[in-house]
Amino acid sequence: LLTWSSLVFGHQLLLLLLSIGVGVKTLGFHNPHHLKYLTLWWTASRIIQNMDPTSEPCNDFYQYACGGWLNRHVIPESSSRYSIFDKLRDDLEIILKGEEQKGLAVPAATFSKFLLRSNILGSKVPPSSYSYALRSFPALTFYEFKFLEPYWVMEEKLSMMNSQFNKRLLIDMFVWNDDRDSRSHIIYVSTTPGPSAQLGVREAYLQFMISIAKMIRADLNFTKDDEFVENEMLLVMKFETEIANVSNNIKAWETKQLLSSNSNVLSITPYQVSTPFSQNFNWTVFIQIVMSSVNINILENEEVVVYGVPYLQNLQEIISKYPARTIQNYLVWRLVQDQISNLSHRFKEARVSYRKALYGTSLEDVQWRECVRYVNNNMESAVGALYVKQSFAGESKRMVSDLIQKVREVFIETLNELQWMDELSKKRAQEKATAIREQIGYPDYILEEQNKKLDDEYYQLNFKEDMFFENTLENLKSNAQKSLKKLREKVDQDVWIIGAAVVNAFYSPNRNQIVFPAGILQPPFFSKQQLQALNFGGIGMVIGHEITHGFDDNGRNFDKDGNMLDWWSNFSSQHFKEQTKCMVYQYSNYSWDLAGGQHVSGLGTLGENIADNGGIRQAYKAYIKWVEQEGQEPRLPGLNLTHEQLFFINFAQVWCGSYRPEYASQSIKTDVHSPLKYRVMGSLQNFEAFSEAFHCHTGTVMHPEEKCRVW
Ligand SMILES: *[C@@H]1O[C@H](CO)[C@@H](O)[C@H](O)[C@H]1NC(C)=O
Ligand SMILES: *[C@@H]1O[C@H](CO)[C@@H](O)[C@H](O)[C@H]1NC(C)=O
Ligand SMILES: *[C@@H]1O[C@H](CO)[C@@H](O)[C@H](O)[C@H]1NC(C)=O
Ligand SMILES: *[C@@H]1O[C@H](CO)[C@@H](O)[C@H](O)[C@H]1NC(C)=O
Ligand SMILES: *[C@@H]1O[C@H](CO)[C@@H](O)[C@H](O)[C@H]1NC(C)=O
Ligand SMILES: *[C@@H]1O[C@H](CO)[C@@H](O)[C@H](O)[C@H]1NC(C)=O
Ligand SMILES: *[C@@H]1O[C@H](CO)[C@@H](O)[C@H](O)[C@H]1NC(C)=O
Ligand SMILES: [Zn+2]
Fold first, then answer.
1. Required co-factor (predicted)?
2. Is residue 559 domain-shared with residue 657, that is, in the same domain?
3. Which residue is closest in CA terms to ligand 4's atom 14?
4. Closest atom of ligand 1 relative to the 2 alpha carbon
5. Rounded Cα–Cα distance for residues 160 and 417 (Å)
6. Angle in degrees, 0-180, between the axes of helices 541-549 and 396-414, rounded to the nearest 10
7. What is the mean predicted confidence (pLDDT) over 175-188?
8. What is the three-class DSSP state of 657?
9. CB atoms closer than 10 angstroms to residue 354
């Protein structure tokens, strides 16, 4: 295909012209034709630099598309993974940092500035401030507990954690859209995912726990008793390990099985009787205390959805083996651990070795990044407004909406190709795809000067400019109560589930809705100026991915209105499971060198793999249709690549990236996405159009005889 010499030539040419191009722009040429022309060169340069054209695309397409990028990038000391995708996130944080410097008259923006600035000042906060705040934790009992123990009531402690600190430990109790009726809310009780990641790094973890406990005790002037602290923290770790073991043994598929049966909706009273986790634990009391924090009265016949019953059965057994003191210390530890980043530098230093063992990183992120991330996560509308004003081109909304329409049409047309589905199920799938609602960019109200809605989101927050740590506690409580309060409210279908300044995309089964925040609507995913081949391979693939989530092993259990309802015929349902089995085996066969040869969990990543495979297929077909209607685009200058090839290369380049081995070993156990490399290989190996575009012979790595396909 491409020879090295022709590419070297192309590469140099590109750099040369690119620098001329920049000069032209600064001289003030604003002709849109020139802009488009410059974009072609700029894009060609980006694509060629990321590639390794000396490698054989049919053998290792990931290396071919990403080799150049991988060669030229070193993972930053503070990162556990570094990819084109991650770099977009880093760059977005730089934009947000710049926004903080500017003033804005919107009160909500002032709030977010407060939070940001108070954090930046974090290191100057007098030490007394945080130890005072630590004292205000419900019970900081890394000390002798025997006097309090008889009066220790588990229901009270867990509900305090839940409602005041938004920390749901041992029992996950929360308010969410009712799976059976997406218009209303209901209480859920579920397993808390245990911190299984720690299992591999026990020694570093234990040392981390012990140092923090000692530091806090010293700050609070407790008696020094190292042996007691060491023994106690060892017990806490054992307790946590046992909990993690049982919560992680409930495999994704088991939870999903529960999910698809309706037998698990109970009112509190029968639940009290039927679950083994009811000795010494009164569910009514627990739920009542949590909900009383938002003045909601709960009676014993309140309906509660329970997922993960086997976990609750095991929980009883584990709890009975440990004294109340250890459980209490466990609760406080988990709370303190989350807050380490918000405390003085010496606390962060205590976790350096632990982080090294867990993520392979040797440096913390610079503080301003943590600040920006925190404020963006917690005040997403205010920050979103700043971001959109600065960096989002208004007409993108319409163009993306148009792309969504095209990909959706292809999803529906493609149903006809599927032999494993009968007509009735196809009709239902079509109805569901048609009914998917979309949110693009940002909610309009955040940009309106006169709209109080934005300010109202924050009016109850009581932030103080020089009290960062206290502000984070205030924020935890406010977040917990915001979601608990919804129990008696109708679901607001128009509310945005995510901020605008986010490089990601979403599908919500309860809403049957796809969301593309402004943050992802940028190159390489999307640009008004870039070739449509690249837009379809980028954002087009993302759109297809999110739509397909509505039909993956989880999404398929919900109907077009977001209600959990089995709309499948027996025939189609059975064949769906067979089709997915192929993908489970395919991905399970990937053995990842970076993770010491561990195999990808085909079952754990199934939903994402189904979405990746559907997404690339739909986007490709939609692009081919676009060309039939609109005609061929110009070629990228200096690159001897067809548009079909560019489509696949841009798709792959979104996922160029590398992992630290420590993080690879952790993420292969916990990430529901396949490793970046296998996201690319897996979906392209299954797609004939890819092999055609690159003339791969049957039997090559990228064109295996056996192919898996669900959608
Ligand atoms: C471009 O690629 C085609 C086929 O892939 C090849 O025949 C042609 O020689 C290439 N042109 C150059 C200038 O490398
Ligand atoms: C601990 O003791 C020191 C010195 O006596 C005192 O300055 C400090 O305020 C005390 N800290 C707390 C949290 O009581
Ligand atoms: C984890 O659970 C399994 C059974 O579910 C049990 O056999 C094993 O001993 C447990 N391991 C630990 C460390 O508790
Ligand atoms: C749980 O607490 C409620 C309210 O205090 C009480 O009415 C009920 O009898 C208790 N249930 C059990 C099983 O102890
Ligand atoms: C501060 O604490 C909150 C709540 O535990 C946590 O989510 C957040 O990540 C911390 N902030 C920073 C900057 O680490
Ligand atoms: C579908 O399968 C279930 C159980 O597998 C069975 O009870 C039911 O009768 C079947 N329905 C039809 C229409 O075949
Ligand atoms: C690899 O795939 C084959 C079938 O294609 C399957 O039998 C085997 O179990 C898979 N290997 C793993 C580790 O899942
Ligand atoms: Zn996904």
1. Zn(2+)
2. yes
3. 282
4. 14
5. 54
6. 60
7. 91
8. strand
9. 22
Clarify whether 546 is annotated catalytic: yes
Q: Report yes or no on 118 lying in a domain.
A: no
Cα 115 to chain centroid distance, Å, stands at: 23
370-404 per-position pLDDT tens digit: 878 888 888 888 888 888 988 888 788 999 999 99
Task: Provide Rg for the chain, Cα atoms.
Answer: 27
**Model pLDDT for residues 534-571, shown as the tens digit of each residue:** 999 999 999 999 999 999 998 999 999 999 889 999 99
| Known active-site residue 552 | no
**Residue 708 lies inside a defined structural domain of this protein:** no
Q: How many DSSP H helices and E strands does the chain contain?
A: 30, 11
Report which protein residue has its CA nearest ligand 5's atom 7. 338
Domain assignment of residue 156, given as a range: 126-342
Whose CA is closest to atom 3 on ligand 7? 585
Asked whether residue 599 is assigned to any structural domain, the reply reads: yes
Tell the burial category of 273 from Cβ atoms under 10 Å away from its Cβ (0-12, 13-18, 19+). Answer: exposed
DSSP 523: T
Residue among 333, 472, 475 whose CB has most ligand 5 atoms within 8 A, to mutate: 472
Please give the biggest Cα pair distance in the chain. Answer: 81
Q: Whose CA is nearest to atom 10 of ligand 1?
A: 640
DSSP for 373-416, please give it: HHHHHHSHHHHHHHHHHHH--TTHHHHHHHHHHHHHHHHHHHGG
The 10 Å Cβ neighbour count of residue 555 is 20
Domain count for the chain: 3
How, if at all, do strands 181-190 and 437-441 pair?
unpaired
Residue 323 pLDDT > 60: yes
Tokens describing residue 244: 């993690």
- pLDDT on residue 123: 44
For residue 305, which amino acid is it?
A: V
Q: Are residues 438 and 522 in the same domain?
A: yes
- The reply to whether omega before 524 is within 30° of 0 (cis) is yes
- Residue tagged 């530098």 (tokens): 345
* Active-site annotation holder among 99, 179, 608, 612: 612
What is the number of the ligand closest to the CA of 585? 7
Residue 353 forms part of a structural domain: no
List ligand 7's pocket residues with C-beta within 6 A.
Answer: 585, 588-589, 599
Residue pair 583/613 in contact (Cβ under 8 Å)? The answer is: yes
Are 625 and 407 in contact by the 8 Å Cβ rule? The answer is no
pLDDT digits (tens, 9 = 90+) for 610-662: 999 999 999 999 999 999 999 999 999 889 999 999 999 999 999 999 999 99
Residues 318, 187 share a domain: yes
* 3-state helix/strand/coil string of 101-136: HCCCCCHHHHHHHHHHHHHHCHHHCCHHHHHHHHHC
Q: How remote is the CA of residue 546 from the centroid of ligand 8, in Å?
A: 6
Most confident of 218-227, 455-464, 606-615: 606-615
